[in-house]
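Kindly inspect this one:
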Amino acid sequence: MNNFELRGNGMMRKLPGLLLILAIASTVGLTVHGQTPSASPAAQAGLGVVSVIGEVKSIDAAAKQMIVRADSGTLFTVNLSEKTQYLRVAPGATSLTGATKIALADVGEGDRILAQGRGAADQKTVPALRLVVMSKADIVKKQDQERADWRRRGVLGMVSALNPATKEVTISSRTVTGTSQTVIIPITDKVMIRRYPPDSIPKFSEAKPSKFEELKVGDQVRALGDKSADGTHLTAEEIVFGSFRLAGGTVTAIDPATGEVKINDLKTKQPLIVTIKSDSVLRRLPENFGMFGGGMGPGGAAGAGGPGGARPQQNQAQGQRPPGGGPGGPPGGGMRMGGGTTMAEMLERLPTISINELKVGDMVVMSSIQSPDPARITAISLVTGIEPLLTMMAARQQGGGQARPAAVDLNSSFGGMFGGVGLP
């Protein structure tokens, strides 16, 4: 059975298409001949029925019209009348059972709607006989709940091993203190597997259906499920993964107008052009990061702050940790810089910045889209002010002595995870 997909702010909403179209047809007298609708009116022209799924961009109550941006990006005009029926369903609803009747005044900009009616000649207009609505507020609330669940019950890391015979995926990550963690995930028919497209900034809602055979060593994975008592296995419900490149270096030039940042690559020692897009996420490590304790230095010693350095709980505002935390972290409070907190989890809790806040001379590390041009990459997630962390990693890898950030193995140090696979 084909599905409608009602997506809101990165969250996938599924309503079975046949179920909805039959429910609508039964009350407004439309003939559907057993077909399932699509988000494109053109696809339904032969049936005399059109449907649009998308986000409300504007409403003109006096003219009884609204502009809807379909998931394809096309703008449609939805004409309303006294015959139009309005129903609100909760995010995640799979039928009209439990739907509540509302009025046009209850529909707002940013809401997700299914508008359906008889076809118009221009194929850009929908004279709606019924609107099925998911409110923006309900979507945001549901999204917050899902994010909290992924933080509480999720794991993330890099694929370090695959067992085709047993269909088991082993993922590895590294804690802030340098401890390696591995989790084995059996893949069964009940596990939903999705993959990010390789040529675009990854968005949770745009991950495509995939399968075990498409996973490979080095892929980044975020999985949701129930952990075993010892934390070494996960009974997964959903897995999202992608293939990303990790790079780092010193900023040599910044062009906010074009969104390009030039760096000297740590690994190749060659110039590298980094494109910053609107969906790229930029963060800055706090200047006093080296003062955090938690065994960051060589041999597990405290960082530059020493015993008298600032404690993590004194920096809650800078860390801006979301409620619920992540695996290994406490349910609330400030950023915990030790224990089971992985590098990716620590970094993704930092506040975001803009390209205008980058400076020449900054040391940056980023995850990026794989590119056929080795001299150019597009940043997915970039963290600046990273030199104190690289120095600590270098000291650990070199067993003390003169720590050189340029010698750090980024994939080994960051466990292959640097913000590529995000949350809903």
Q: What stands out?
A: The first strand starts at residue 3 and ends at 8. The two ends are 25 Å apart (CA to CA). Residues 158 and 282 are 21 Å apart (CA to CA). The chain is about 15% helix and 35% strand.
